[in-house]
């Protein structure tokens, strides 16, 4: 059984993430979404909310996907899941430097874990969670970029705030 872990902040999960996830599911027997508790960012959604949004969003996919959260080192979580690979999405050249640094550090920490980079569909290459949050906050249409559930939760969040 070949297992991969797809980590991220997922604040919130977008259709770009789901696109990468589906590509990974075609390559591995099982892919686990790993929502990071601490990311050095100040997420809009709590970790519980980010996990819930991801769980709801993956229901739209053909294959089931487990969604978990993790704290501490990513490579330790990967090992705890019996996984052999980390999935990361590469949207543009600008992603490369950070991703390269992270992949090499993770390899240094645990040599047997490979990082696999997958490119999302072109129409999602300019997407990011922060751009979605900003458009939603200003009342723009985000329906093409997130699932209906994420869209309604985002709208609700900004109405409250
Ligand atoms: N579609 C849409 N957006 C995408 C995307 C895609 N396919 N791929 C990446 N993104 C966006 C994300 O939405 C996010 O946008 P934002 O910055 O506007 O919120 C951005 O690209 C990158 O975020 P993400 O992919 O979630 O990664 P991250 O940089 O937030 O997460 C961790 C990095 C959590 C994986 C990393 O910090 C980690 O592993 N932490 C654990 C501690 C550890 O082991 N540290 C050592 C690592 S060497």
Structure in words:
- The protein is of the alpha/beta class and 161 residues long.
- The protein has a single domain (3-160), classed as Rossmann fold, CATH 3.40.50.
- The chain has helices at residues 15-27, 47-58, 74-80, 93-109, 129-137, 148-160; strands at residues 3-8, 30-36, 66-70, 85-89, 114-118.
- The protein has a 5-stranded parallel β-sheet with strand order 3-2-1-4-5.
- α4 links the parallel β4 and β5 (114-118).
- It is globular and about 45 Å long.
- The mean pLDDT is 96.
- It binds coenzyme A.
- Coenzyme A (COA) is lined by residues 7-11, 14, 16-17, 20, 36, 39, 73-74, 89, 91, 102, 105-106, 120, 124, 127-130.
The CATH homologous superfamily is named: HUPs
Number of domains: 1
| CATH topology-level name | Rossmann fold
User: What is the correct CATH architecture?
Assistant: 3-Layer(aba) Sandwich
Largest beta-sheet details: 5 strands, parallel
Order of helices and strands: EHEHEHEHEHH
Number of strands: 5
Shape: globular
Strand order of the largest sheet: 3-2-1-4-5
In helices, the fraction of residues equals 40-55%
Indicate the structural class.
Answer: alpha/beta
Low-confidence stretches: none
If helices are DSSP runs of H or I spanning 4 or more residues, what is the number of helices? 6
Radius of gyration: 15 Å
